[in-house]
Amino acid sequence: MGSISSAVLICRLAGLGDPRTQGSGNPGTTNVLRLGGKKLAIFTLLGDVLKGFIPVYIAHFTTLSATALSFVALAAFIGHLFPVFFGFKGGKGVATALGVLLALAWPVGCAALITWIVVAALFRYSSLAALVTAILLPLYVYLWSNPAYCVAVIIISLLLIVKHRDNILRLLSSKESKIKL
Q: pLDDT tens-digit profile of 7-32?
């Protein structure tokens, strides 16, 4: 499910073309917001959250161990970053990570969402909110979840940070775009 690109599908259905070749080139909610407006961005956000949430939620009803369940979460997340159906060019993973975390350990998912909202509201940088949240995720898992999830969540956190490397450079040079709340 992670390999289904909500941004690409929604933009194509709306007649906007491929978001990987327009705007920032990122097939994610923020780029869809720029290209097609709030309504399409909301659909993209929901699609990306659900493609992380659904496989992990379904896996909860199997006999998988907590470690195996965490790797289902990791697979959904990595599928978003490197979608097999879209030339392995995916998004940065923030919304899909939220969906994965909400299904894996809802207190961690809620803490991540609250962290993102607070940092975004205070500083008005989506990327900074994602980075602060990614840094705190392993702590949240340690405090409020199963330790067996730690390895997968640390990998998710590191990948989120790596996928935001251009944003980090823009933040450091004061060239990152602020979001309008």
A: 999 999 999 989 999 988 889 898 99
Distances (CA, A) of 169 to 32, 155, 162: 22, 21, 12
Structural domain includes residue 15: no
Residue 125: CB partners within 8 Å, gap ≥ 6?
119, 171, 176, 178, 179
User: Does 98 reside within a domain?
Assistant: yes
Find the farthest-apart pair of alpha carbons in the chain and give their distance in angstroms, rounded: 49
Query: Exposure of 114 by Cβ count < 10 A (0-12 exposed, 13-18 middle, 19+ buried)?
Result: exposed
Number of compact structural domains in the chain:
1
Half-sphere exposure (Cβ direction) of 40: Cα atoms closer than 13 Å: 22
Range of the domain at 109: 48-172
Model-level pTM greater than 0.90? Answer: yes
Task: For the chain, give the number of residues.
Answer: 181
- Domain-embedded: residue 36: no
Other Cβ atoms within 10 Å of 73 Cβ, number: 28
Neighbour-count burial for 28-52, b at 16+ CB within 10 Å, e otherwise: bbbbbbebbeeebbebbbbbbbbbb
C-alpha 102/C-alpha 112 separation (Å) is 9
Alpha helices in 82-105 (DSSP H): 94-104
Does residue 40 form part of some domain? no
